[in-house]
Amino acid sequence: LGQDKVAREDTPLAFSPSVTGALDLNYRVVSTKRSLFEAGLQTKYVGERFVDNSGAEASKLDAYHYSDLRLAYTLSPAPASRLGALRLTVLVRNITGQEYFSNGWSYRYNFAGNETTLQGLYPQAGRNVLIGLGLDF
Length: 137
Prior knowledge:
Elements: E1 20-31, E2 35-46, E3 49-50, E4 60-61, E5 64-75, E6 86-93, E7 101-111, E8 114-123, E9 128-135
Antiparallel strand pairs: 1-2, 2-5, 3-4, 5-6, 6-9, 7-8
């Protein structure tokens, strides 16, 4: 069986996109002494990258982007109260339902002169909602 030596030059480093970016916009819709309502939009972009160091087209993961929407309401107690602030947060992740793979794996082998590549991809969730309740004390 044995092993085949493969020399690669000037190939991209696995899982290293050439471009990444993120943007976080927040807006205070209502802000009083006792209550705060905020809305936020977070967006992320990850450029194309490879699941191994081959640089082969078949090992390339496409670029992706998605956006999240966050709504948060905070109610502060009266100053004499021993209770802390109560916070309700709703996070809608991937609001556009973007379908993408964030990661993967690759395994190459040569058997009886035939090179074979096995690969797997990790798909990410479509639109989903997280609800949080927080209490400061």
